Amino acid sequence: MKLTFKLSIVALALSVAACSDNDDSTPVVEETIVEENQVSEYGPFATGTTSSPVTVYFDLDTGTKLDITDEDAATNTSWDIAFKRTNVYLNSHADNSVQMYFVGNNAEFYSEDGSADIDMFTTATAETELEDYEAVTYSDIPSDDTVWQQDVTEQILAGFYNYDSSTHQVSAAADKYYVVQSDSEFTKFRVSELVQAGFSMSSITFAVQHQAEGEQAFAQEQSFTLDLAMLCASSDFVYVDLQSQLEVTAEDSYDVMLTCATGGADFDLTLAETATAIQDFANVHTGISAAAAPHYGFQSNEYTVKAFSSAPWYSYNLQGGHLLWSQYGVYIIKTTDGYHKLQITSYYNEDGESGNYSFRADALTDDQ
Predict the structure, then answer these.
(1) CA distances for 135 relative to 36, 235, 326, 331, angstroms
(2) Interatomic CA distance for residues 178 and 32, integer angstroms
(3) Do residues 285 and 179 lie in contact, with contact meaning Cβ atoms separated by under 8 Å?
């Protein structure tokens, strides 16, 4: 059993000072780290406010927070897990594709109908749930590769066509709708028809329903067709303004871009950087409330499907007050260097301020 060890204030100050001259990619220790009975506790790490969020990047292998920007993080392979307000991210870099497995502890925190048991959540503490954390060992690492989850990058406009693997033919997925938010207006559209030309689209037809600013419902659907074979004969890209139903230039305000290929355009739709969209594959939206738009989940062209979404670490607003309550779930994190267990113990600092993560994290080794 490991004896209790705490960094003294002096030792902590020296460790931070020693790192102060490092570059942005160098791990920097923040806050006191306590190791007790082979349990390492970290935090609180501040992730900003709802209006000004901050991402905290953490390297589980070294037990350190990395002082890197979001831009740096896209190519950085050192960080394993990141926290940004209520969201938890895993590194998906090709050289450090981190995966997660939820061990399924604390199932009793939820009733048979899936609702949260308020008493279980509100009476649990980091101390009462320490036993669950300590119980997870190397032997709990699953051998079934299919149970591991990882963050996946998706394109919001994916799915607009169907592919027949037996005939290698492509057709329009005319029942797949999307809603684009651009310039304070909304446009619902689908690809109602496309013509395949080898490995390209020689023609594409958009069916659109526009909702002008101040309106509450989409207008009647109208269609327009683009001759991609002709347009791509003299250009590398085709830009589409869904509102005006016109092919435009890169300098104009556009919603969707197509990349040209031989004989037409690639089977891909790229959403403009100035626009966001949602998928309405069930065709349920007849209009979008501008005031409620932030709650619809509009995404940029590429967005992340988070592994932690499959096993959320918290329940929300159980007693009013918009508070988050941890389930004290234990997760096994798989990195390129090994395995770790993780348990989020708090979302608040001593002053009750939200977005301040504290957690336990330790390596899992086969000598346990």
Answers:
(1) 15, 61, 18, 12
(2) 48
(3) yes
